[in-house]
Amino acid sequence: MSTTLRINGTSHQIDLPDDVPLLWVLRDEIGLTGTKFGCGVAACGACTVHIDGEAVRSCQVALSDVWGDVTTIEGLGTPDAMATVQKAWAQNQVAQCGYCQSGQIMQAASLLAENPTPSDDDIDEAMQGNLCRCGTYPRIRAAIHDAAKMMKEA
Q1: Is residue 1 scored above 80 in pLDDT?
Q2: How many angstroms separate the CA atoms of 21 and 66, rounded?
Q3: How far, in Å, CA of 132 to CA of 121, rounded?
Q4: Is residue 147 within 8 Å of residue 112, measured between CB atoms?
Q5: pTM for the predicted model, two decimal places
Q6: What are phi and psi of 72, to 5 degrees?
Q7: pLDDT above 80 (res 75)
Q8: Most buried residue, 33, 55, 90, 119, by most Cβ within 10 Å?
Q9: DSSP 3-state percent helix, strand, coil across the chain (nearest 5)
Q10: Phi, psi of 151 (to 5 degrees)
Q11: By three-state DSSP, how is residue 65 classified?
């Protein structure tokens, strides 16, 4: 069945079965490989994207269940025009292996859109479903606090 999705501001005509996970539509059909496959059961957060601004695990959203505009890490910002949270990530040297970072950043961006001045507890709660095998959690928390400050000053 043919479906139209708006991804990062561009409309895409998708001709795939309705039950194909959004993750595979993004990676295999559209070629947006910043969204990563981690576990396939929504337990790690590597595949986090936004649908209408809400952070969701794209491995568990079927094509037919996409309810609005999709934003991936590629749509959040670019190396030449980074989003505030991406700038904070770079300044805090959060990434080590980097595999989980697109999902971490997308979850953090959703948190900051919802709560522009999160406490440590707010951050821990919002980020608990995003796993980092390298253990950069203190840097992730610091980057979120720094992004919140940068957004407040802007």
Answers
A1: no
A2: 10
A3: 18
A4: yes
A5: 0.96
A6: -105, 175
A7: yes
A8: 55
A9: 45, 15, 40
A10: -70, -35
A11: helix
